[in-house]
Design brief:
Largest sheet: none
Number of strands: 0
Shape: elongated
Keywords: Membrane, Transmembrane, Transmembrane helix
Structural class: mainly alpha
Strand content: under 5%
Distance between the termini: 26 Å
Radius of gyration: 17 Å
Length: about 70
């Protein structure tokens, strides 16, 4: 008996990495090192939030393409 692959559609496979990056980066948003200065913490937060915004945008576009292709 042949098993069907879990991620059949190419767009489903393309969404895996951004989703994993988002899942890993969300908890990191609230972490910082105690010895960091205020500006280092702010920079860390800005970089993570910008990265998460781009990932969410890519996931949203990929999801729209997936829905449109069905």
């Amino acid at each position: 008996m042949m098993k069907r692959p879990l991620l059949r559609h190419p767009l489903q496979r393309r969404m895996v990495v951004p989703a994993l990056l988002l899942a890993v980066s969300l908890p990191l948003t609230f972490l910082g090192w105690p010895h960091w200065s205020e500006w280092q913490s702010d920079l860390w937060m800005a970089v993570l939030l910008a990265t998460q915004s781009v990932i969410c945008l890519k996931l949203g576009l990929a999801l729209c393409r997936y829905i449109a292709s069905r």
